[in-house]
Records
---
Amino acid sequence: MKRVFSKSIKMLILTLMSIVVLSATAAMYYSLSMSSTIDVYAAEVYFVVGSDNGTKGLVVTFGSQNTTAMVSGLRAYPNATFTYTDPVRVRNNGSITAQLRLTPDIDPSTNPEDFVYVRFLLNASAAADRRWLNYTSNDSNRHRCKRRVAHCNND
Amino acid sequence: MSFSLLPEFFAFLGVDIFVALSLLTCLLDDHFPKTLPWLFQAGAIGGYVHIFISKEFFTIFGDYMRFWYCLLYLVVALANVIALNAYIAVIKKHWTLAKVFSGTVVFPTLLISGFFISNYAGQVAEFYVSGMALLFSAVVLGVSISVLLSPRIVKKYWKRR
């Protein structure tokens, strides 16, 4: 009777251990077999050239997928304000309102001491969405200013 | 959705075999040493550690290495199954039990393992083992095991010689 009892206990312990080991192993195997799907698609908000491109020495070039734009050839007379009214545009091709993060990076490589500031104007179609950002000098050849967030519905 | 086997499946199969052996040797404890179920249980835990290490070093170990060490674990598990059968037949000389064991445990285990290995070989190296070849191997394996473990046939054979 005692032997039967001890065998039952032994069997019970082994069964419980087996369940634990098998469950843990199956979970581990399942975690190995899991796979993820990554979709890559074109950006819905991107830069396009404005009407000033190619005029007044202005050249606009775009990075990959038009998510970055480089505006070069900007010129200004001393003690005078020179305005490029439409150098580059931001287009939202998506169906919903998008949030923009504009990160200007200015490099006044020639005559940096003459550099005062550049004002970035976001001419949104809705007046409430219009934003601007002044980038001022701090006597350094290369500057990076903080982002400013704006909303964009279309160009 | 396509389903493909990972090399770790062989380790998982090995864990299953060890667990089954542990419970079986516990049930038949009159014929086996008392510590054997615990050893097989330890073997099953070893298989879990095996897959755990495989997961942790997933990016370092290549498919080739993962396949071979998982297959090695399965081979060890299968060797234990065959060794148990040999222990009953040769050491204990329980021919009937050995025959039953080979028919219900060894033979299906080898067949299932062979099926999955051929499946994996077809998946990875496009080395397909046909269903007929598998069936033929199964029949040959089954007949040879039952003949080998039939004392009358073995005695007749030795008398002739």
---
Amino acid sequence: MYPVDLLPSPVHLVNDIFTLLRSASRRVTADAKPNPADFDVNIQTNTGFLPPSPLPNLQKPYDIWEDALSEAQRVLKLGENLPETHTQERAAGEHWRERIRTVSKG
Amino acid sequence: MPVLEADSLLADPQLVRRAHQVLAFLVHFYAHSIPPDVIFESIVIPRSLVTPLMTVSQALKIAPVLTFADTVLWNWELVDPKLPVTLENMHFGRHLFSGTEAERKFYYGSARTELVGAEILHIINEYHNLPNVTEISSVCQINKLLERLSLAIEDINTSIQAMRNEVDPQVFFWEARPWWNGSASGDSAPAWIYEGVADSSRLDLSGPSAGQSSIMHALDLFLDIDHKLRQRRSPAPSESNKKADHGFMERMRRYMPGKHRAYLEWIARSPRALRSVAQETPAIREQYNAAVTTLKKLRDCHMRIACLYIVTMSRSTRPPPGCPMAAVMRRMEREAARQGPVTGTGGNELALLLKAGRDATSRAVLTTN
């Protein structure tokens, strides 16, 4: 083998430069960091994983879910804390659950 | 109640979150308000809740059940809507199951920890914005960022510690926590069947856990804490470490909004993984180790608190005031029946899990010679 064979030919040289450029641009892409806001990560507002504003209430027709939740918070007790003697509270709970269960027209 | 299609909500992310929150609260209210003596093996969750909940959960790429996001990240209002979103101007526990202060303060303390942790997100962001990790000026910057990271971890620890004085463990354990249990939360706890879903057992229905806090996951991934014991690190895992539920942290990610999970995946695949950089750069090893050690201390403290709130309470026999003895006994039996890693929030397996997490953290420390 002659030493001259070890030198890259002009064609190889061009190819090598392309490869180099490609790998450089690949490195840039790999390094390019995404914007945290794209992930609902709120750095600007300092709220982090919390949204930058509170959730709004649902409007019609979905307000029936909001109403059911308000009533649940007023009426429902932990089932395991309701022995059979607590008939009124048990009935109130069953009434709430029955209305959730019974499919009605929207 | 009619079965409403949630499709028209999907254009507004805030409304999708709200729908998930309200429906998930309704599901847990529905399941846990049923007296155990009228439950036959399983609980059918009606389609009026399930159908729209499945739609919004798919849109958010989040589990179709109550999550940390529903109870903490999204569970607040502004005291004065004209003032900015700061901890002082936020009212937490917009929705409560038990209506107790212990429950509200638990959500508040958890949210405060998230807000304190926002500094960590700044640090991760600034680290990835550095032009490189090799030049002297960058190495100096990394050291400064790591110093800030240790302080931020200390602040998180302070916030968690403060909850000891804020949340009554008795009320927390007996009145608030039972509402959060998901499907089949113990050997004798009923499975939930989602009406209209082909196979409910394939759904993620565990309920919320602090293990779903994205900030702690971000911290672990940034420091490359190996919870799954995949790397060879010393000291080798103990027998009890090996018994712990290694998949817990990864499973908990399915209970996060998909975008947060994607963010965590991005940190995990970072082209400039911090621990590798610290391995190759002796000048930052000390600050890296300091941050890891601070996180290990946080986990030591967290173990003590969790022990007080859950492990001790699940072994306690003292019924809370007004709670009928029979119900307490049933609960004790359920807790006792919990064998092996199931939800990660039971008694013994929680202790195992937290110890394993603490030890995995210690193993991230790099040798400095």
